[in-house]
Amino acid sequence: MKKSNILQINNQYIQEELQKSQAYRQEKKQKNRFMGSILILVVFLFVLPTYNLVTSYENLQKREVQLNDLQKRYKDLEKQQKIETSLVKKLEDEEYVTKYIRAKLQYSKDGEFIYNIPGLLPR
After folding, report:
1. Coiled-coil regions in this chain (predicted)?
2. Which label site among 6, 18, 53, 79 has the fewest CB atoms less than 10 Å from its CB?
3. Residues 17 and 40 in one domain
4. Which candidate, 123, 52, 113, places its Cα nearest to that of 88?
5. How does DSSP assign 27-71, residue by residue?
6. Pair 99, 67 in one domain
7. Cβ distance 96 to 122 under 8 Å?
8. Is 60 in the same domain as 113?
9. Do residues 67 and 107 share a domain?
Protein backbone atom coordinates (compact mmCIF):
# COMPACT_ATOMS: atom_id res chain seq x y z
CA MET A 1 0.00 0.00 0.00
CA LYS A 2 1.14 3.44 -0.91
CA LYS A 3 1.27 6.08 1.71
CA SER A 4 -0.42 9.38 0.90
CA ASN A 5 1.81 12.39 0.56
CA ILE A 6 -1.03 14.81 1.44
CA LEU A 7 -0.74 16.43 4.78
CA GLN A 8 -3.92 17.94 6.25
CA ILE A 9 -3.54 21.06 8.29
CA ASN A 10 -5.89 21.20 11.20
CA ASN A 11 -5.70 24.63 12.73
CA GLN A 12 -8.22 27.16 14.00
CA TYR A 13 -8.72 28.83 10.57
CA ILE A 14 -9.51 25.49 8.91
CA GLN A 15 -11.95 24.65 11.71
CA GLU A 16 -13.71 28.02 11.32
CA GLU A 17 -13.97 27.59 7.53
CA LEU A 18 -15.42 24.09 7.99
CA GLN A 19 -17.98 25.48 10.43
CA LYS A 20 -18.83 28.32 8.02
CA SER A 21 -19.31 25.91 5.12
CA GLN A 22 -21.46 23.61 7.30
CA ALA A 23 -23.53 26.60 8.47
CA TYR A 24 -23.90 27.75 4.83
CA ARG A 25 -25.02 24.25 3.76
CA GLN A 26 -27.47 24.08 6.67
CA GLU A 27 -28.88 27.51 5.79
CA LYS A 28 -29.17 26.51 2.13
CA LYS A 29 -30.97 23.29 3.16
CA GLN A 30 -33.46 25.28 5.27
CA LYS A 31 -34.10 27.70 2.38
CA ASN A 32 -34.70 24.78 0.03
CA ARG A 33 -37.18 23.22 2.47
CA PHE A 34 -38.95 26.56 2.86
CA MET A 35 -39.16 27.04 -0.91
CA GLY A 36 -40.40 23.47 -1.32
CA SER A 37 -43.16 24.00 1.23
CA ILE A 38 -44.11 27.30 -0.47
CA LEU A 39 -44.25 25.48 -3.83
CA ILE A 40 -46.48 22.75 -2.39
CA LEU A 41 -48.78 25.40 -0.90
CA VAL A 42 -49.01 27.27 -4.24
CA VAL A 43 -49.78 24.04 -6.12
CA PHE A 44 -52.47 23.19 -3.56
CA LEU A 45 -53.97 26.68 -3.90
CA PHE A 46 -54.20 26.22 -7.68
CA VAL A 47 -55.57 22.67 -7.52
CA LEU A 48 -58.64 23.55 -5.43
CA PRO A 49 -60.00 26.29 -7.72
CA THR A 50 -59.23 24.17 -10.76
CA TYR A 51 -61.19 21.26 -9.30
CA ASN A 52 -64.11 23.57 -8.52
CA LEU A 53 -63.97 25.01 -12.03
CA VAL A 54 -64.04 21.55 -13.63
CA THR A 55 -66.94 20.49 -11.41
CA SER A 56 -68.86 23.64 -12.29
CA TYR A 57 -68.22 23.07 -16.00
CA GLU A 58 -69.52 19.50 -15.77
CA ASN A 59 -72.64 20.72 -13.97
CA LEU A 60 -73.13 23.36 -16.66
CA GLN A 61 -72.91 20.72 -19.38
CA LYS A 62 -75.48 18.56 -17.59
CA ARG A 63 -77.81 21.55 -17.21
CA GLU A 64 -77.47 22.40 -20.91
CA VAL A 65 -78.42 18.84 -21.87
CA GLN A 66 -81.34 19.00 -19.44
CA LEU A 67 -82.41 22.35 -20.92
CA ASN A 68 -82.36 20.92 -24.44
CA ASP A 69 -84.46 17.95 -23.33
CA LEU A 70 -86.95 20.24 -21.63
CA GLN A 71 -87.17 22.46 -24.72
CA LYS A 72 -87.90 19.42 -26.90
CA ARG A 73 -90.55 18.27 -24.43
CA TYR A 74 -92.05 21.77 -24.41
CA LYS A 75 -92.32 21.76 -28.20
CA ASP A 76 -93.95 18.32 -28.13
CA LEU A 77 -96.42 19.50 -25.51
CA GLU A 78 -97.19 22.60 -27.58
CA LYS A 79 -97.94 20.39 -30.58
CA GLN A 80 -100.15 18.17 -28.43
CA GLN A 81 -101.95 21.22 -27.08
CA LYS A 82 -102.59 22.51 -30.61
CA ILE A 83 -104.00 19.12 -31.59
CA GLU A 84 -106.23 19.05 -28.52
CA THR A 85 -107.36 22.63 -29.10
CA SER A 86 -108.25 21.89 -32.70
CA LEU A 87 -110.19 18.80 -31.56
CA VAL A 88 -112.12 20.91 -29.05
CA LYS A 89 -112.98 23.40 -31.80
CA LYS A 90 -114.04 20.58 -34.11
CA LEU A 91 -116.17 19.03 -31.37
CA GLU A 92 -118.14 22.25 -31.15
CA ASP A 93 -119.47 21.46 -34.65
CA GLU A 94 -122.48 19.15 -34.31
CA GLU A 95 -121.98 17.47 -37.68
CA TYR A 96 -118.37 16.61 -36.87
CA VAL A 97 -119.38 15.21 -33.48
CA THR A 98 -121.87 12.84 -35.06
CA LYS A 99 -119.31 11.66 -37.62
CA TYR A 100 -116.71 11.26 -34.87
CA ILE A 101 -119.01 9.26 -32.59
CA ARG A 102 -120.15 7.01 -35.42
CA ALA A 103 -116.59 6.36 -36.56
CA LYS A 104 -114.82 6.13 -33.20
CA LEU A 105 -117.47 4.41 -31.10
CA GLN A 106 -119.04 2.48 -34.00
CA TYR A 107 -122.55 3.81 -33.48
CA SER A 108 -124.92 3.16 -36.33
CA LYS A 109 -128.44 3.90 -37.35
CA ASP A 110 -130.91 1.09 -37.61
CA GLY A 111 -130.16 -1.07 -40.64
CA GLU A 112 -126.64 0.37 -41.21
CA PHE A 113 -123.49 -1.73 -41.47
CA ILE A 114 -120.15 -0.27 -40.34
CA TYR A 115 -116.87 -1.19 -42.02
CA ASN A 116 -113.68 0.11 -40.39
CA ILE A 117 -110.98 1.26 -42.75
CA PRO A 118 -107.76 2.15 -40.91
CA GLY A 119 -106.58 5.71 -41.36
CA LEU A 120 -110.02 7.09 -42.28
CA LEU A 121 -111.14 7.86 -38.74
CA PRO A 122 -111.58 11.59 -38.16
CA ARG A 123 -109.10 13.22 -35.91
Report:
1. 60-94
2. 6
3. yes
4. 123
5. HHHHHHHHHHHHHHHHHHHHHHHHHHHHHHHHHHHHHHHHHHHHH
6. no
7. yes
8. no
9. no
